[in-house]
Design brief:
The complex is a heterodimer of chains A (113) and B (113).
Chain A (H helix, E strand, L loop, with lengths): L3 E4 L2 E4 L4 E8 L5 E7 L6 E7 L2 E5 L6 E7 L2 E7 L7 E8 L8 E2 L3 E5 L1
Parallel strand pairs in A: 2-11
Antiparallel strand pairs in A: 1-3, 3-8, 4-5, 4-9, 5-6, 7-8, 9-10, 9-11
Chain B lengths: L3 E3 L3 E5 L4 E7 L6 E7 L6 E7 L4 E3 L3 E6 L4 E6 L8 E8 L7 E3 L3 E6 L1
Parallel strand pairs in B: 2-11
Antiparallel strand pairs in B: 1-3, 3-8, 4-5, 4-9, 6-7, 7-8, 9-10, 9-11
The chains are: A mainly beta (113), B mainly beta (113).
């Protein structure tokens, strides 16, 4: 295991629901990331946090709202999603935001009905 | 524009043979490249990286080659094993942001027994 855990592993939600994805890293890293992985598309960086401060918001719709309460935890709050938001959402962490290895969690498979 | 692409979407090899997975990149200013492996149901796992001041780097059973002249990256896996079956992604470091990795779309490696 990589030391990065994500819950839930699978989530099915309606377009009017509100849900949250959780990520926890046990590596003592200072940077955490949310990525979206859609079928047949490259990984897309969504958000980056460094020492609990958001340093990147990669033109992500406001229906995705990240939260980083401390350096070990990262959340992605979801509301009024669209079916095209169905994807694998991956969390990653790295020692810092310099060019260092990023460790990925197993992902949450999200299906929006 | 900046892009990372893969020549082949699927590669099938006989167990015990060597595998070569190729990747092209377009940003000549990129100076850091990574190969990730993603098994079914798991997040991407770091395999090996290389900086632009190197042409070759070796790990355990894996070798990454970088040809900056033609902007080509390859991953060689020696004595391919069934456990090597996965999707392999190359990623490059975005020139003006140290943590931004641009991922390719992936190559699926199938190992025949």
């Amino acid at each position: 295991e990589t030391g990065v855990t994500q819950t839930p592993r699978h989530l099915v939600m309606g377009m009017t629901n509100k849900k949250s994805l959780k990520c926890e890293q046990h590596l003592g890293h200072n940077a955490m990331y949310w990525y979206k992985q859609s079928a047949k598309k490259p990984l897309e960086l969504m958000f980056v946090y460094s020492l609990e401060e958001r340093v990147e918001n990669n033109s992500v719709p406001s229906r995705f709202s990240p939260e980083c309460p401390n350096s070990s935890h990262l959340f992605l709050h979801l509301h009024t999603l669209q079916p095209e938001d169905s994807a694998l959402y991956l969390c990653a962490s790295s020692q810092d935001t310099s060019r260092s290895e990023q460790f990925f969690g197993p992902g949450t498979r999200l299906t929006v009905l | 524009g900046e892009s990372v692409g893969l020549h082949l979407p699927t590669l099938s090899v006989q167990e015990g043979d060597n595998s070569i997975i190729n990747c092209a990149y377009s940003n000549s200013a990129s100076d850091y490249f990574i190969w990730y492996k993603q098994e079914s149901g798991k997040g991407p796992q770091f395999i090996i990286d290389i900086r632009s001041n190197m042409d070759k780097r070796q790990g355990q059973r894996v070798t990454v080659l970088l040809n900056k002249t033609v902007k080509h990256l390859s991953l060689q896996i020696a004595a391919t094993q069934p456990g090597d079956s996965a999707v392999y992604f190359c990623a490059e470091n975005k020139k003006d942001s140290s943590y931004k990795l641009i991922f390719g779309s992936g190559t699926r490696l199938l190992v025949r027994p």
